[in-house]
Amino acid sequence: MEQTPNQETPVEETTAQEASPDESLQQASEENTDNKAGENNNNKTDEKTDEKTDNKTNKKKKDKTKRTVFDEINSWVASITIVILLALVIRSLIFEPVRVDGASMNNTLNNGDLVLVTKPKVLSGNLERGDIVICHYPGRIRSTRRVGATFTLNYHTTFIKRLVALPGDSVAISGGVLYVNDTPVDEPDTVIPARSDMPRITLKKGEYFVIGDNRNNSHDSRSFDVGPITEKMIVGHVAFRFWPLSDFGPVK
Questions:
Q1: Which of 25, 91, 190, 205 is the most exposed place for a label (fewest CB within 10 A)?
Q2: Domain match, 71 and 159 both
Q3: Which domain holds residue 80?
Q4: 180 forms bridges with which residues in the sheet?
Q5: In which element (H, E) is residue 83 found?
Q6: Is the separation of the CB atoms in 144 and 155 below 8 Å?
Q7: CATH, residue 232
Q8: How far is CA 97 from CA 21, 105, 115, 132, in A?
Q9: b/e string for 53-64 if b means 16 or more Cβ within 10 A?
Q10: How far is residue 49 from each of residues 41, 60, 65, measured CA to CA in Å?
Q11: What pLDDT, in 10s, does the model give residues 164-214?
Q12: For the ranges 76-80, 126-130, 241-245, which has the lowest average pLDDT?
């Protein structure tokens, strides 16, 4: 028998082809370029985000600063308004300081004395004979100020006098002695007696009679251009002297 030579069956082999050095470098370069481009894009995105955040933060800070300044101004305006209103209420309804100007109340009050004028006694209508009061005289307007087209404010000259007679009382001066309802009045030692007499008069309803303690140097209800005053002309009661300190205390 004739032998047939052994034939080898071809085997397919799968081999990994090794890339050339130039190709590897090119791929690496492309990858690095892509990575750098990606990083740049990311950096730009981050920068934009940071910029937007900074802008928002700055805007918030500016808005906050504006609000803070505006709130501070409003707070000051409100505080000043409250203080002014409170001062007006106190001066109108409670008390106010007044400086004595002139010698018509010597020797009870002297020129330059500072006194505290209270309002409740006048507002409640509890005035008494012998009270020292702050009052206006008829027609004695110091200044006038117009408010708008229809309102006018009159600033009256104020006087410090002693209230000696109330509505319905009779009053007279004879021999330096003050008579009220035909009875001599026991007055403080500080009163300087009048050298001239005043005939007896009777006050009508709503009339009050005021005289300075320095009876020889006082323009008061004894004068024809003043006469008896009304309750509305009395604006305060002198209750206390706080200057000079040597005379500190209640005023009688």
A1: 205
A2: no
A3: 32-93
A4: 171, 183
A5: helix 21-93
A6: yes
A7: 2.10.109.10
A8: 106, 17, 6, 14
A9: eeeeeeeeeeee
A10: 12, 16, 24
A11: 999 999 999 999 999 999 999 999 999 999 999 999 999 999 999 999 999
A12: 76-80
C-alpha to C-alpha distance for 80 and 71, rounded to whole angstroms: 14
- Mean per-residue pLDDT over the chain, rounded: 79
Q: In what order do the strands lie in the sheet with 170-174?
A: 183-184, 177-180, 170-174, 198-202
In a shared domain, residues 87 and 148? no
| 14 inside domain | no
Same domain, 47 and 145: no
Residues catalogued as catalytic: 104, 161
CB crowding 1-26: b at 16 or more within 10 Å, else e: eeeeeeeeeeeeeeeeeeeeeeeeee
Radius of gyration over every alpha carbon of the chain, rounded to an integer in angstroms: 50
- Would you say 227 and 203 are in contact if contact means Cβ atoms under 8 Å apart? no
Nearest C-alpha neighbor of 225 from the set 139, 125, 144: 139
Q: Categorize the per-residue pLDDT at 163 as very low, low, confident or very high, splitting at 50, 70 and 90.
A: very high
- CB neighbours of residue 152 within 10 Å: 9
- pLDDT over 90 at 216, yes or no: yes
Rounded to 10 degrees, what is the CA torsion of 186, 189, 195, 198?
-30
Which tokens is 145 given? 């100020």
Q: Are residues 61 and 162 in the same domain?
A: no
**DSSP SS3 for 76:** helix
Q: pTM of this prediction? A: 0.67
